Amino acid sequence: MDDTGAAPALVGRVVVAARAAEGSGDRGGYEDLLRQAGGDGAGALAGGLGLLGSADAVERAVGCDLLGAASDRDEEVRAEAATALVGLAEGEADVPVLRALAAALGRTDDRRAVPVLVALAGHADAGVRERVAVALPGAATGDPDGPGVRALVTLTRDPDPEVRNWATFALGFQSEADGPAIRAALWERTGDEYPDAREEGIRGLARRRDPRAVPLLLELLADPEGAHVLTFHAAQVLAAPELLPVLEDYDPDGTGVAEALAACDPVRRERLHADAWELLCALDGLRPDFEAALSASRPEPGLALTLGSDPGSAQYDVGALLRRAGGDPARAARLVVADHPDSPGVRALIGLTRSPDPGVRDWATHQLAGEFQADTPAIRAAFWERTRDEYPDAREEGIRGLARRRDPRALPLLLELLADPARVHARVFGSAEIMALPELLPALRRYDPGIPRYAGAASAVASCDPVQRERLHADAWELLRALDGLRPDLAAALFTPRASWGPVLGLGAFDEPPGRSDPVLGPFAATYLVVELLTRAGGDLGRAAALVAAEHPPVGGTGNP
User: Fold this and answer.
1) Residue 16: phi, psi to the nearest 5?
2) What is the mean predicted confidence (pLDDT) over 431-457?
3) How far is CA 304 from CA 101, 155, 300, 319, 495, in A?
4) In the chain, domain spans
5) What's the pLDDT at 531?
6) So what's the architecture of 347-464 in CATH?
């Protein structure tokens, strides 16, 4: 045995505890020591690596467990741990070691683990297959047709009930993947004779807002012994008014009950949406540089408030945030501001907006106004200075920059631009569109959108007209429902970024979407401005949904589950 590492004595104790657990079947002491060792990520990594080459299967299994514990506690060691575990898998045949190896791979969050886990999903030992079902969500991508998801679908039909249970939980609750094959697998489990696997199938369908889940979820909620907390979460996602009567029988102070009640009550749901919009407006007034946006995602309940569009940007559950603030949207906005101290401005570019060269001032102000989404008091001050610039192009960019940040000082200046047809072009209409103020309507209606130069007038009028704007938002939700009915695998979501007046339809959020680097529209595989999409479809919601579905052919099948 090689006790290499920061704490060789502790590694030795872990091995002794593993041998004792093998004989008694009581792993409590062993698990406690593993957690203790994992606290020293680098030391546990070194100790685990030293054990993987042992001729003793118990030591190799402990080595895998140490690498898993280290990966749990220290992200820095995960890549090296995954490399070692993948290497061990090539020649390992001992069943207990393979169980430990599969479990550890799932904790590395490393895509290289997927082929190993997929291969182990076909192992003869049910314990290995169960560890694979538990591990795959930590390694697989969200691709509905990816090998990891396909392996989980297969494991939901495993002859062993606990393998089916864990695989259905992983597929239905831990994964956001959706598609006909996934829903078919979840639906099969709703008829499973094993109660735990059946419940996971029901909850998985509910998270995808599949209407077939409503009577099944009612049955789980009506259980005299009470429902599982994950059932309340599923009810919150499904948000079906039919669930209200049975939910009202539960103590609202119970975990997840209040959230499920609020989601299933149409009146409270509308109030949440109104408060969320008030929160967004208040936050935008306090810290416009946050680039805050609201979004709703099909596999998750409620609304999310996101700051910025980069992967890993801060995100808040709007309902939870409002509860922190005692239901006061303005106070919720102040809480968010307190959570995030001032971020630095784009100082070099601001300096260039004050260059003695008018062309440089124009270019720098244009960059700040349109290309960059940053917004701070210093940036607004630079725009305001340029609104008095003697160089017309730089002045116009200053007005546009303020308008894109919905600064009320831009209103009279934008009206001035709109009063001169010779100075009106697409970017002016775009600024009016983002400001979305009824005061701009008379000036905008002077322009014929049938003339190519003035084509942007139509969408600007639609944004500034409160009636048209409300209709568009209602149509956007109907479009989302229609698209979800046609193609749930597209993982469609609606959100409204600050730099866009209207809702945006996003498809398939990924950490690193291929070809997507848009700082405004965010981390989606594809995005559509809803107003433009409805215009293409002649205002027909069903046709708009069909257009989107046709532009993104399904992988491995078509149609509804």
Assistant:
1) -60, -45
2) 88
3) 36, 32, 9, 8, 9
4) 1-108, 266-339, 347-464, 466-551
5) 77
6) Alpha Horseshoe (1.25)
